[in-house]
Description:
This protein is of the alpha/beta class. It has 3 domains: about 1-65 and about 80-110, no CATH class; about 115-230 and about 310-400, Rossmann fold, CATH 3.40.50.1000; about 230-305, Trehalose-6-phosphate phosphatase related protein, domain 2 (Alpha-Beta Plaits), CATH 3.30.70. It contains 13 helices and 17 strands. It has helices at about 1-15, 30-35, 40-45, 55-60, 100-110, 115-120, 150-165, 175-180, 235-250, 275-285, 310-320, 340-350, 375-400, and strands at about 20, 25, 85-90, 95, 125-130, 165-170, 190, 195-200, 210-215, 225, 255-260, 265, 290-295, 300-305, 330-335, 355-360, 370. The strands form 4 sheets. Strands 9-10-8-7-6-5-15-16-17 form a 9-stranded mixed sheet, with helices on both faces. A 4-stranded antiparallel sheet has the order 11-12-14-13, with helices on one face. β3 (about 85-90) and β4 form a beta hairpin. The termini are far apart. Residues about 1-80, about 90-95, about 205-210 and about 215-220 have low confidence and may be disordered.
Amino acid sequence: MAHARRSSATQRVLVQQQHHILDGRFIIRNMRLVARRKVKSHRSLGLMGLQRSSASYKQSVQSIQRTTKDENKGRDLSTKTRTAPLLSDPNTNDPVSLDSSYNSWVEEHPSALDSFDRMMKTAKGKRIVVFLDYDGTLSPIVDNPDRALMSEEMRAALRGVAKYFPTAIISGRSRDKVTEFVKLSNVYYAGSHGMDIMAPPIPVKSSTAGNHQTIAPHGKESTEVLFQPAKKFLPAIQEIVTMLEEKTKKIQGVRIEDNGFCVSVHFRQVRAEDYGILEEKVKSVVEKYPEFHLTEGKMVLEVRPSIEWNKGHALEYLLDTLGFSNSSDVLPLYIGDDRSDEDAFKVIRSRGQGYPIIVSSTPKDTKASYSLQDPSEVLSFLLRLARLKEASFSSRTLKNGSS
């Protein structure tokens, strides 16, 4: 039985470990949807290697090939053709396209770049509020989480968007870490999946008073509010971090990241054959803390407090602090790539207004309405959004100056 669990876990890791960065381009490969398909679909796509050994699997599945020109120059890429991912037949090495499934998926989740003009036409007269994930959205997915740095082009584009629209980043990272990565003062930050939020000051409700702390950030005269709904779990989280570090120290490649109000166990560099052992050790720690639960993201296991709070709640809280909670003319826009972002997508869908946008180069189950392939397309989208407002602002300035 243990061997069967390890075999199953090994296959799952092998599927997940097909994330690459090719020649500086951002490629995100999420093969979990393909892995869940029926055997018949596996045969038609030439993916029977998923059932084989580690060596044969690595030989059978080839890197997704995709060309994106001038993506690092900050140019508008909205006119480029979206190309479906390519795999190789393990028997013949001939390319096998996922055109049919990918194109079908894109029909349900149209390109936010191709749909940009239509989206902005619908948004006319409404106040756009921008929410973004960090890893895999503003930065590439990389082997070392400490090296997930956003480009200067992306930072400039984000700065431009935040100049015209209220903008917040909601990340699984600690708030301090994502603030250090982004380095922008005109952006609001929510770390630990929204359990650590720096927001504008608002009247504090009695039910949440103990979770708020009014502070004056360095270099700022005005005060802001630090909202931490999971504050009472901090001592237990520190215990969990210590136990995880001790339990996993002999597993090569594992990395424990303390994100303040949640703990990330990164296994991107862990050998496939060690994943089952790692998973069992992590679960053995979490079982000792009934007020916590385990979730899974892209090549990461996360230990979180079991409270009713996620990125969707963080989005609602920020809209409230910005004065838009009951506004009919606000239009929230959320861009994210991970499973945890689905909670924010659901909130936007439930509001009946706004744009949930998934960042993915492969088909996946999602509540998003639109899609972008990778961070390079996120960059293009943000540039177009900022330029649109710049053009509108310049037009009004000229009109006022001539009157």
